[in-house]
Amino acid sequence: MNNSSGQYEELHISSISDLKAFGFWVYLMSDLVLFSIVFSAFAVVGHNYAGGPSPKELFNLPYLFGETAFLLLSSATMGLSIVAMLKDKNKFVIIGLTITFILGLGFIVMEVHEFYEMITNGNTPAQSSFLSSFFTLVGMHGTHVTFGLIWIVVMIIQIRFKGLIRGVKSRLYRLGMFWHFLDIVWIGVFTVVYLLGVI
Fold first, then answer.
1. Exposed, middle or buried, 44 (CB in 10 Å: 0-12/13-18/19+)?
2. Number of domains making up the chain
3. What pLDDT, in 10s, does the model give residues 133-192?
């Protein structure tokens, strides 16, 4: 009887875990649709400068390469954290997440500085359709990264106090999916908005 009850409980937990994973995939796909809409809007109005500055006048590619490096390196350290999680190495998971947080924070600081410089020079979202769609797309991605940083802090706290129990591992795995998703979106942003804009 106890064995049967244990098997039922294990099956129940597994079903809940599968349902949560499916729900998170649905969320990621809906987020992808949202980003696709904003990308499309940028593609339509991104060349309407209304007498304002063009991308060549605004963007500093070496600076943006540095910004991109922060985020891509953070993706690598997040991957290493997940590998450490699979080996039940709490200490290395926390170290990996901490480095990921620092790199992600560096990305956000650079992005905020970029926005600050543009706005203080009078290049606000109200100046042209290009700038309006630019701030919307890049700002939306930055907001997602910011929420990801908060999630990383929450996970570090949970690992320290709860250890790598089943629920923590499940949430950490979803965090890794979310973080890699943001890296993929950024590659699209960097290519479409920055590189193609400067070329």
1. exposed
2. 1
3. 999 999 999 999 999 999 999 999 999 999 999 889 999 999 999 999 999 999 999 999
pLDDT at 3 over 60: no
Amino acid at 106: G
Q: Which domain holds residue 56?
A: 2-198
* Token pair of 145 as six digits: 């990264």
Long-range (24+ apart) CB contacts under 8 A made by 91-98 are 93/159, 93/164, 93/172, 94/156, 94/159, 94/160, 97/152, 97/155, 97/156, 97/159, 98/156
pTM attached to this predicted model: 0.89
The identity of residue 99, as a single letter, is I
Which single residue is written with the structure tokens 């009078």? Answer: 122
Q: Look at the block and give the residue holding tokens 């926390």.
A: 94
